[in-house]
Fold:
Amino acid sequence: MKKTLLLALVAIIGLVANAQGRSALKINEVMVSNNSSIVDEYGDHNAWIELFNSAYGPLEISSVYLTTDPNQPKMYPVPLGDVNTKIPKRQHVIFWADNQPDKGTFHTTLQLVPGQDNWIGIYDANGITLIDEVVVPASLTDDQTWARKTDGKTIVDANGNDISWEVRDNGAKADGTPSYITPSSNNIIKDGNHKVQYFHERDKNGFALTVMAMCIVFSALLVLCICFMIISKIFAKVVLSRKLRAHGLDPIADTDAAEHDSGEEIAAIAMALAEHLDAHDTESTVLTINKVKRAYSPWSSKIYSLRELPRR
Amino acid sequence: MSEFFMNNLTEFWHLTGFYNATWQHLVMLAVGLFFIYLAIKKNFEPMLLVPIGFGILIGNIPFNAEAGLEIGIYEEGSVLNILYNGVSAGWYPPLIFLGIGAMTDFSALIANPKLMLIGAAAQFGIFGAYMVSLLLGFMPDQAGAIAIIGGADGPTAIFLSSKLAPNLMGAIAVSAYSYMALVPVIQPPIMRLFTTKKERVIKMKPARAVSQSEKIIFPIVGMLLTCFVVPSGLPLLGMLFFGNLLRECGVCTRLAKTASNALTDIVTILLGMTVGASTQASSFLTKETIFIFFLGFMAFIIASTSGVLFVKLFNLFLPKSKKINPLIGNAGVSAVPMSARISNNLGLEYDPGNYLLMHAMGPNVAGVIGSAVAAGVLLGFLA
Structure:
């Protein structure tokens, strides 16, 4: 039974891990009509589809399907056995939609038609699970691309509309920023660490970061502190209750009784009993409490702190 | 024939260390020897300073890099480069944290959870040094990497600097470990300066006995809470608490023993040696390194001071019977267990019956958690 459960658990984890991995594959940029943009290794201008691995680990995409027809999900299977189908983390590959699969792994049976909406989908190896899809609008003209604003990211506005995509033509956007076509590279070109620049400009003396960071450090440890104060109180009650039960007392009625069994009181009672019963051996009958100075103490002993491992 | 001999011998001479040596190499070799001297003769953190010191010697043997021998630590594919990968990719520090977790008994902290706040207060050393680093002209990411020296935690310093400022990592690591070794020299004057004689003899109540169940719950709850607050600290905090769970659960004794002994020893050897070897003269002997050593020293002073002062402040709100001895405030800087031992030694100096070790272990291990959280915060803000 245990083995069956274990196998089932491993299988579920494997399935989940696989699903998570494939879902990181995204259609990132598409050019439907390529007149003077990039050329393939044969020197031809063809329509292209850029895929992006949005995960932070490499992604093997062989055996997934590319298609332009939802009724024909297995239109172009990405072939097995090509090392180039393993996309490094946060990197891109380009597939040519030239209907010439005999030219190599990245030349597909797909064809994109200018002047009409083009649906493109990626299906997982089972040909059923849709990993990603996009509709490239008919309005796209020659040498323009339909690209995600941020690589691999889906952006939704306040009304729930998908605003992830935009037209790019190597010109300028409405806000004046460049609108680069970026085959095989990031759609957002990073020229430095923006967080560092932001802190450099806005927090020159580091005071704001210091305040924020100290608050976070204190909060983290304060939460832990409060949590363990509560836990220790609960455990103290449990221990007390067990102790009372062990002595045959009612844990609810006799809560106070246990509070008096401190070491000092027990010692005093023991001494009084010994005195009363006269249970001494032949002794001087003089009781002296001396403070003993010694170098050794369990408080400074390593065996009670760092190195002792509990055993069951 | 003689020409053949001469040509080959000349070529060989050009490959030797004697031919390629510069004064910078000699300075670094002297630094390495000094570290080894401190470790062996003075017994300053020998398990760290011997590997680092010898690593400095290895990393600063002059050779002709253009000969393509693939022996240097920065030459891809060389043996040293493969070993150095654990530092540059940042996977040695979490393994060390696994070992620290498996070695550490958090009982003192669980018994007296308020001591965790001392561990938090001492992290001010990190951020104080961050502000001064910015003043000296470092960019925020570099300043963050340098400032983490104040956490007095070598693995954390290496982990963070490998992410934020890989080019400064060698200097930061050597600085962090040097000051950790010098904790017995740096901290006592600060502790004396900021405490009165009356405060130094405060006797704290022995901590209550902590049940095994509490010890098992601690790493699980600790990991969940701290990592939910600072997910960027996950590699360090996750491994720290995982190691502690191995230790406390009682059913993984073999794993706990391996993590706390063999594994930690192996990683310490590799980490120390490769960090030492990464301090090559050309990149180490710079103005920035001097600044880093200065900032590291300052960070240690600020951290120790803020820990002690925080306890004094905390005492204002505590009843007389529950006052905390401010001599344990310095232990908040991490540097386990050296700073806790210093608290204990100083306490005994003023009252031979006042053992503070177990009390100081509370803020000490809280300092480990605190510095990992602080590293996570810096990583989140600046990476």
